[in-house]
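Annotated sample (chain length 1113).
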Amino acid sequence: MGDNFRKVYNQLNDEQREAVDNIYGPVLVIAGPGTGKTQLLSARVANILRITDASPNNILCLTFTENGAENMRERLASFIGASAAYEVEISTYHSFGNSLLAQGRDYLDEERVSIDELKQFEIIRDIKQNLPHDNLLAPEKNKVRDILIAIQDIKQEDISPEIFKQIALQNLKLIKKASDSLQIMDELAAVKQSSKGAGKVSAAIQKIEILSRLAQTLKTFDEPRIYAKTPTILEQIYANFSEQIAKLEADPKQSITHLTKGWKDKYFEKNHNNNFRFKDESASRKALDLAEFYATYEASLQNDGLQDFNDMILRAIRLLENNADFRFTMQEKYQYILLDEYQDTNGAQSRIVELLTSNEMIPDYEPNVLAVGDDDQAIMAFQGAQFSNMHDFMSFYNCPTKTINLTKNYRSHQTILDFAETIAEQIEGRLSRKIKDLNKKVIQANPNITDVSIWRKSFAHQSTEFYEVAGKIRALVESGVRPREIAVLAPRHAILEEMSKYLHHFNLPVEYEKSENILDEKPVKQVIEMLKLVQSIADDSTNQNVIWPKVLVFDFWQNGLIEIYQTVSKFNRWDDSAPNLTQILLESENQKLQDIAKFFIELSQKINQETFETIVDLVIGSTETETGFKSPLREFYSQKSDEDFYNLATYLTILREKSKNNITGETAITVTEFLRMINIYQESGIKIVSKTAFSTDQNAVQVMTAFGAKGLEFKHTFLISVDDSAWGTGKGNSQVISLPKNMERIKDPNQQDTKKRLFFVAITRAKTNLYLTSSDKTFDGRTKSPLKLLAENRADQIAENMPVGFNKIIVDESETPSLGILQINWSDNLDIPKLKNEQLFADKLQHFSHSASTLTSFYDAKYGGPNKFFENHILRFPQEVSGSAQFGTLMHQVFDFWQKQINRGETVRLETILREVETKVSRLRLSPQQKQNELARALAAFTNFYNQRATIFECKAASEVKIGKILLDGEVLISGGIDRIEIDENAKTIEIVDFKTGNITEKENFKNKPKLHKYQMQLYFYKILLENSPEFKNYKVKTGRLEFIEGDEKYRTPIVKSIEFNSETQQRIKDLLFALDNKIKNFTIDSIQPSKTGQGVSVADLIAFEDEVLGEQ
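Output written by the structure step:
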């Protein structure tokens, strides 16, 4: 590490070194764009390890995205080595919240089930339906989605329902106390108006005096804040008045409109009696009803054992607040904390940091914490981010916070930086306005950047704009510019999706990650329509007559349109006694149509007996019906392309996960429930999002939103659709559930500032060449307004806020795009080029993390080996979760409950275990009969195990041990969970315990039973995992055992299979792991297939296949 660190350290500038060297106490680094913060963070971690006794796992780095965490880890690996880099805890805030909950499981009274936005929507919809008519949230205009967003915003600030209620009540109380003082404003009417000269000045002075008296009077009614970060309503009004006065004092020539309009009209209005009143009175009453609604929502989550996305952090906060021992343990563990992109933290995330870095037992405690951020790049306000947390960080602690300002930019030409500064100066809430002597002007520090070009061009039509941009990029590539050095940026995906079509038209390689709603995807629509048809036939609904034509034309049936038309036209929709389409199809002379009709009738007859998963498997063709019919859907997409089959698998996996998360109850999920869920998605407008990253080449043009481009840089940067509706400061999507102005910080209080910051971020991605294009009309002919941020004078064709010499607007006068251009825009056939296998799976395979199940799945020839591995772990094609699999999950949950009770010092009786078994079985998604069978099975198994094996719980043990990603020998990523480890602290040894369901006999052993051979491989994997983990690397894992809780089928006794680990077998397992990793990364997963598969496979066959794989290496 030394030489590499010293080399990089010597390249740092003075301010960067200051941040790297000052590892003790709180430090705030204000890092402008391109100032090398990522290098700084990595160098600081390396320096901490270099000069202190801290271990890598004593360092915590928090950032906002998984990509950001991965980039930081890769940079850090160059300093301290890849393995050590994986020991440093680099995490997103939400992942870290989950980590804290996992580490503090013994302090939690209950575990919660996570829900997504759809389940939140359902809960809130049900609450709203039961509101009394006089509740201010009851009217139809208050949409369920808006209430949901409002509650999310409040929770992100870590404001409880009670605190929110108290703020609203205080607002109403202060408004009532101060209302009479508003009569002062009546004096404004008596002020003699004048348009010029001394009269105008006199009138202005009188108005200022009247409003000043009002502000001072309001101040006398004020009270202390309820919540530290939220001012009272009167404090807010007075503070804003002081701001307006300060502006007048700074520039006496400006109009007093800021006071008479900007302040007076912002906070006060006249009622029907022509008397002044506070505008926020009605908003405060609505906030009071929202507080009650919020409390009901939280109670609903609590009662049902649920948690939403924000609770992952909020429950971690409560865990730290309420358990001092645990908080001190975490503070001792995380001795050095680094916070990236701190300007994007919300109130809850900031509170996590505060709890980890504050110690009330030590008055002058100085936490070793560094926060890095740039308020000019605070673009995540829509997610509740508060850039003001950067300013608040400076007063968090009872010791001085060192502030370091990075202004030396190594990315861009000074002309581009000056242009960006012109935009940043328009940001009203800029940090430099709050911190005295803070100069945020960024200066070019790279002398090798000498050339610069900024190109501003306006087109008549959006089609022309996109065509010309694509042509310009084509010309750049043909001139020798590497495509990866070119980026196309826009604020929204909708713009980029259209732009991508033009890039493909010019045969340009493209890399683009978009978020798509899978409900809009063709195969998903097909599956849903088929399920609707099954349901309608089962219900004997006339809706089947509407659905049949849609289903019959699906491409995978390969039906002839004429045959479909001839058959469907026989249906008489005006005659209620006429046969329905299902009957007509059954009597069709076309055998294929008959077979399809019989297929759906057969499914409709199973709909009340089979689970949703079973019906879906039949619908897509994973399995065939009892009559031997197999849907061609799956086979069709598998033959169409690898990408189509991969997408189908991904979509179905997401749908199954969504159904499991959103459909509650005590029986198996049914088709009826699934379709009900889909209807709620469509009602709510909530998308089922799948992030699809595709690249048609490793060296491709980068197409992304400005949000996604943050932290990146490009030689040629194109900003497209540079108009006021896309990038501008026009009115945004303001919150329908409006809050009083003193609560506005809960929701982005200045959306215009956020849009300015986004444009600033986009500009500063450019190294030397920046292209800004716009068009006067959209695709559908609507007129667009120029971007106000650029202060464009269309008469002179000058953008006044762009750098001199580059501010001329080049105008393309073409009014109507050519037919060829329009065809590109209107074509439905411009599909993304099909990807090669390596491109399709590249990211997933290169960052593949192995678990015990992935290892054994590949080498398990009995159940398919490499082919099954590829389907289950790469494609992740969904499979029905069997009753046995659910029983296995139940078993682990009960054993975990048992161990947690023991760790708390409680006596665990058999009745307690059996009650827990009954509770867990009741939550299984099985049919009533299956549930009854599994309950009997579980009660018998746990009764026998308790009577014969309860003594194993007398020793110290940890259950459900989760080990995060570890880089084994600097090459192979591994991770996993272990059922139980029994720890001997004196000997520093561990025994691994793996609980198993299913039967085994005493005679069967690791050499003669394929199942045990696989389980032995799992135990060795766990040993390797533990001994390379930061937490357990100082322990020796000597033994392992399998606890078969059902054991011998004949005698119903638990059976134990133990092994003593040896180095020779461990090396073999490690070699098998590395061989698999090599095959994955080189995409040769199927290069060798086992010679024998299925039930007849022996241990010798398994070993032979393993040897063959090892021999290939």
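Annotation: Residues 444-509+698-812 form a domain with the Rossmann fold fold (CATH 3.40.50.300).
Annotation: The radius of gyration is 33 Å.
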